[in-house]
Amino acid sequence: MALAEHAQTPAVAPQRVPLVELRNIRVSFGGVRAVDGVTIDLYPGEVVGVVGGNGAGKTTLMRTLSGARPPDSGQIFVSGQPVTISNPRDAKALGVETIYQTLALADNLDAPANVFLGRELTGGGALDDSAMESATRKVIGRLNPNFKNFKSPVLRLSGGQRQAVAIARAIHFNARALIMDEPTAALGPAETAQVHALIRQLKSEGIGIFLVSHDIHDVFDLSERISVVYHGKLVGTVNKNDVTTDEVLGMIILGKPPTKLTRQELAELHG
Amino acid sequence: MGVSVPSEVTAEGQPAPPIRSFVDSIRSALAPVTERLRYLEIDTRMLGMLLALVIIWVGFGIVSGGTFLTPRNLWNLSVQSASIAIMATGMVLVIVSRNIDLSVGSLLGFLGYTMAMVQSVWIPQRLGFEQPYTWIVTLAIGLALGALIGGLQGFVVAYGGVPSFIVTLGGLLIWRGLIFRYAQGQTLAPLDTTFQMLGGGTVGTRVGALGEWPSWVLGLALCAGIVYALITSRRRRRRYGFPVRPRWAEVLIGAVACGIVLGVVWVANSYPLPPNVAAQYAEEHKIAIPPEGLFIPTGIAFPVVIMLIVTLVVTFLATRRRFGRYVYAIGGNPDAAALAGINVRRTIMLTFALMGALAAMSAAVQTARLDAAVTNLGVQNELDVISAAVIGGTSFAGGIGTVPGAILGAVVMQSLRSGMVLLLVDSPTQDIVVGVVLVAAVGLDTLLRRRGK
Fold this sequence. Notes:
The complex is a heterodimer of chains A (271) and B (453). Chain A is built from 10 helices and 12 strands. Chain A has a 6-stranded mixed beta sheet, sandwiched between helices. With 271 residues, chain A is of the alpha/beta class. In chain A, strand 11 (225-230) and strand 12 form a beta hairpin. Chain B has a domain at 43-201 and 301-452: ABC transporter involved in vitamin B12 uptake, BtuC (Orthogonal Bundle), CATH 1.10.3470. Chain B is globular, with a radius of gyration of 24 Å. The two termini of chain B are 21 Å apart.
């Protein structure tokens, strides 16, 4: 940390220390290299789209940061400090929260129990369910004012409401960095718009967001930079304003940076 | 996907179809009742089970010419249910976390035998017979050993990754085999007389029950606890501005719960001590025996008191502590539990340790009641315990089940058995009936649950 600061030139704004940096991350399953030496970073108040085809390794890469699957090798830095994340608890302690594609909800429990799962409020040697319900009502009320079923198992809720519970769980604990894995894949247009608005709001609060998605339009809509993974390797990270959607598509499908794409290849993408 | 209809509207605001089915018309006829029930916020499954129990009791009462509903039979029923119910509370948590424990019957036998050994051989040889502390030392050793063995099985399940069905099937064979090994077919008896009180029997004029007025005190204390819990919970919800039940609903719930508690006390106090015990008691206390015989109320049996304490403790663990919350979360979605940072393995191991300790508690009750440890103690108890949990609404899919439900399940099952014994139904037929009821109960439950979705 100290070294990094000294190395900076005075002209660079002080917050140019990445909030999160994944350096040279490798993950193998058996003989398969799911993530093969990927380096990406994330700054406060920024959305970085992480895109790639099915099985490209984007979710596995993010799981190393959320603590779900520690990397085989590579380093993780949070605010410039090297950290070890060996389980989800470590990640949460560092302010890294994750909204999983599956939402990772315990379907048989109600919304407050899910929001506070693993971080329950207690008082007098027992769970303080009222305090948890009260806090949940506040945080979910911010996301979805129509949400009323605080006592029923989340199994009975609609897709959008379940999503609200998963998001509430991630943002209630003062997250600094957020991983959103396909946050709108299961949502209707109205709910998708709600999630987009939320992402913009969180961004304005200075939270950094890794947005994993295979919807290129979502990504262009919301991110500043886009990192493309292809067969476990990073193709490149580009500024959204420097590229076209076609060029990013080329990176996703052909695994080549825009400079190496030929005119013919670009044309074939539309074929 | 493309059509954006808010799902709340489709779920509840759908217009009724013009032609109503039979089920729908029944449902609408019952609507005022179900509407009220919703206010009560009571589990309808629990209510259904209570209803089934009432039907069983009234049915057997009529068929047996009233014998089934005598205080004597109900008192015995309560003692018979207790040892199964004690273990069923732990089995709920094991099954909720998507596991099973088939070893509890054998484990009970093994622990019962060990406790008999401790109080009838080891302590007497070193410190003498009938020491005042014999019973509590024995019980403590039994509970600790039970938790240890249960925890060991849980360790193999959770950290070794061996399915619990296999581990505890092995346990079923191992612990039973060990009993035969070191008992060599012998029955260990007699037991410490104080220890025998845990079984609810009588030794001389000592009775394994609370007696008249302590039973009333216990009953009133429970009622006070119920009222206190209702009031504090209402106050807390008010303070946070949450919706609360209407006042009449609170009063009704409190009145029914207290009524049940006091009813149980009344029945237990309507059961007199056996004439010979009463006569001996009268002689000791210089009481003149009236011509119609001496009526000394027995009160609530100690096994039932133990069951009550176990129920309160396990219910508290299951619903008010992190441990219980995690057990249910693991049962609902093990991956989500792990991603939330829950130590899944440790939690699973602890459920098995708790189950082992409860098997020890039941072993104490059963050996005390027999005044002996026999080699086939607890044989097939695992099936009764699992049935009680399942009849009580515990789902094998995991994540669903309640401790009070399992207690009720144990009472339902024991009522069936006890009623059939009264009607002189032979034991194979009893098994057939209980088997059919088990499958029917779970089948009905599954059907209703599917409807409810």
